[in-house]
Design goal:
alpha+beta; binds flavin-adenine dinucleotide; 474 residues; 28% helix; 9-stranded antiparallel β-sheet
Amino acid sequence: MRDFDEAALTVEESLSELRRSLAGPVLGPADTGYDAARICFNAMVDRRPAVIARCIGPGDVATAFDFARVHDLQVAVRGGGHNPAGHCVLDGGLVIDLSLLRGVQVDGDARIARAEGGTTWVDFDQATQAHSLVTPGGVVGSTGVCGLTLGGGIGHLTAQHGLTCDNLIAAELVIPNGRIVHANTDEHAELLWGLRGAGGNFGVATRLELRLHPLDSVVGGTLVFGGRGVRDALCRFRDVVASSPRDLSCQAVISVDDALAPSVIIAPCYTGAAADPDALRVLRSGPGLRDDRVRAHSFLEQQRVFDAAYGHNRHYWKGHFARELADELVEELCEGILALGRPPGEILIESLHGAPKHADAPDGAIGFRDAAFNITVMASWQDGALDERYVAWARATAAAIQPWSVSAGGYINYMQADEPVERVRAAFGGTVFERLQELKRRYDPTNVLHRNQNIPPASPVGTREVPAAEENGR
Ligand SMILES: Cc1cc2nc3c(=O)[nH]c(=O)nc-3n(C[C@H](O)[C@H](O)[C@H](O)COP(=O)(O)OP(=O)(O)OC[C@H]3O[C@@H](n4cnc5c(N)ncnc54)[C@H](O)[C@@H]3O)c2cc1C
């Protein structure tokens, strides 16, 4: 453990000491680049950390934990900066920023990729596709590989290869006492189990090892349906995925255009051998097809289908894992999108058929494997004066989905910071949550890493007092 001068009066005075100790750059409020480094996906989150430690290796992460401990600073961890709750940035504390740690090493023969802690999906896909290999990841390139994997991971290849965390085979982690821990099936196996779904609760991942699968091209893209075709397209999407083999992943996005007419984007990703797959023919059929961009293309092109800029809009997301997409629920979703009144804003439906259900899915903490769909209401707007209205819309629309929810919990990767700890517990189920609390007690007994979808440690061994409102990371 590095000795920092506890006698120094302020964090500002100690920044030069941290600068000397850290191999990567250190940013304080007066430094160029500080404002860019504190932006995150959600423009509702505008926070000013005391210090941003841009770590370039596990040693830096351990040093940053030491500095935070000595100066009694709260800690946030930044990977890709995408979590809609804004947990990667905080007022007055220390950010362990991994955005310079973006190396990806591919072992093509062993079909394994090793991704550093701040790697984004665009980094990862480019490196692995150079070997015609993939792992199922997120659909937006700037999302962090570690943040997404640790919370689950749903994307264009979920039916084929499972959740991203199902493909996690090992991790290098710096835990809050500064120790470096390697988790795999032989060492710290219980920790590996927890890392498959329970987020950044146990330590800072400086490297994740993910299994790869051969893939060059896919048949994918988007089909857009409008008018009265919207309900019909949603029901066809539901029926196709229910009977679909593992070679088709599919998502649907319901939105409303400037003329307040609803539309739905169906986004298939087919990797089978058929030249004219039945499932795609069925998805295309039916009324109201306005735009057909489904074609054979590279996996890298598929990964750009939903790619979007970030950091400019205010966001509030809320959703449920649903056991089915009943006709009545389709009706609720169509009414919900009309209630939005004006774009942007959408309802995302991710199908969880195929590989996540497979009997050989690896052991992990993930709590939603049995759900049929992940349905998320995504409000997005720019004017701060409209916060109340859009948050209320997202909450009301999500409440209408709740009767079909598999549990009262949601997807921790999409959860806002105002969700109570009970909802995090419900996301895993009581028994798994208690097992995770025990794991938390072993690796982070004082809940240093609480700015996340938090799992409080099992027993309060020297636990820092966590006010109720903070329990989910605020
Ligand atoms: C535009 C957009 C698209 C998305 N698409 C998908 C998608 O297709 N599929 C899907 O499943 N999810 C998706 N997500 C959700 C995303 O998976 C989560 O928000 C995830 O937490 C983002 O990780 P990040 O590193 O980018 O975010 P950050 O905000 O940087 O990190 C979020 C939290 O993850 C933890 N964390 C991040 N990196 C590390 C690390 N190296 N070690 C330990 N903990 C870490 C920390 O607790 C941190 O606070 C999307 C989000 C957005 C905004």
